[in-house]
């Protein structure tokens, strides 16, 4: 079974409820129909009539209480809740739905703010980050063409601890959603000291910090991407690597590298890019690229249901 079919089938077995707040977007409307027809999840399609006025007012007041120490005023909170995105995030917070998916008509920043402020951060990581599940056709690398790329959507210049947290969150997602053993590569323009620089030092420190968090994880860095995913190159450049040129999780040194890389692979290799899947939160939710297809929405809902 291919990766996308596996994800959808696994979501069917869980039958979770996922909120979709972008009720005006034609792609989301069509995706909701597909999701329900295929039994991937129960969809709460948040049209205005689906939002209870009393609950909405309660959410406004709760959000104000949560954020007033950060300068939030009640009128600003009220304006935010004119957008169903915040209603969906509060439903997720309270467990009335199992997660939410948005981003077809919202920016990543808007979706992240709603998720972080309403759902809250996982105390273990204390950062929000993101990843993509990349499914590359006719590819022998990674997990038979399946990879996780991170972070490609949230943190512009992660420090070493943040990189370690991104790797840990990605590994947990790989195990839960894809049921694969994580093999993590911290990417750089250098392989084990072949070059120097602040970025290289940051990546090597990230590996050390990850090992402190989870010593049993298979991880290595700094690695150039060919040494990370091509066994023959790994044998030449660093034959003692625990990853052995078989990395299935690629951790990029910054957002610029990650975002460019996933889009290049998606377009030139005709890969499926599922995400951005938001990580580091107390409850699961997913962002979408504003250039997403109907299938992208369906797949993000499926992954969110599995993670719930």
Sketch the topology as an H/E string, one letter per element.
HEHEHHHEHEEHEHEHHEHEEH
DSSP strand content: 15-25%
Task: Specify the CATH class of the largest domain.
Answer: Alpha Beta
What Rg, in angstroms, do the CA atoms define?
A: 20 Å
Structural class: alpha/beta
Helix content: 40-55%
Give the domain tally: 2
> Going across the major beta sheet, what is the strand order?
2-1-3-10-9-4-5-8-6-7
Low-confidence stretches: none
What is CATH's topology name of the largest domain? Answer: Rossmann fold
How would you describe the overall organization of this protein?
By secondary structure, this protein is α/β, with parallel strands linked by helices. It has helices spanning 3-14, 26-38, 53-67, 74-80, 84-93, 108-119, 160-178, 198-213, 225-229, 231-237, 255-268, 294-307, and strands at residues 17-20, 42-45, 99-101, 129-135, 146-150, 183-187, 218-223, 249-251, 272-279, 285-286. It has two domains: 3-120 and 281-307, Rossmann fold (3-Layer(aba) Sandwich); 129-268, Isocitrate/Isopropylmalate dehydrogenase-like (Rossmann fold). The chain contains twelve helices and ten strands. A ten-stranded mixed sheet has the order 2-1-3-10-9-4-5-8-6-7, with helices on both faces. Helix 1 (3-14) crosses helix 12 (294-307) and helix 5 packs parallel to helix 6.
